[in-house]
Design brief:
This protein is an alpha+beta fold. Helix content is 41%, strand content 17%. A three-stranded antiparallel β-sheet has the order 1-2-3, with no helix packed on it. The N and C termini lie far apart (47 Å).
């Protein structure tokens, strides 16, 4: 099996293989699949996705009082990626609390 020198956007694994193409409005881009977590991605995503380890670091640093823009700089990612991570976590918590009240 041929692996590529890239990391999975979900789990950070290096076990990535080509897996077809995705048609975008202006181009056709290569799709990849992670052999560890089965996540599909193109590498042309609109903003940087955080690995599970990076997500843990975000919340650890928030708990320590770091500001979002400092966390982004520390992890070397876009501020929007940090904001999105927090939004998704809040959404998970809201979904969980609303489903447990039923």
């Amino acid at each position: 099996m041929l692996y590529f020198h890239m990391q999975c956007i979900k789990c950070g694994s290096n076990k990535i293989v080509k897996n077809g193409f995705k048609k975008l409005k202006t181009a056709k881009v290569q799709k990849y699949k992670c052999q560890d977590c089965n996540k599909y991605f193109t590498g042309a995503e609109k903003f940087h996705h955080l690995t599970e380890n990076q997500k843990r670091q975000v919340f650890m640093l928030l708990d320590q009082g770091y500001k979002k823009h400092h966390i982004a700089k520390e992890l070397g990612v876009y501020l929007r990626a940090i904001q999105y991570c927090i939004e998704m976590e809040n959404k998970k918590e809201e979904d969980y609390s609303s489903s447990s009240n039923v």
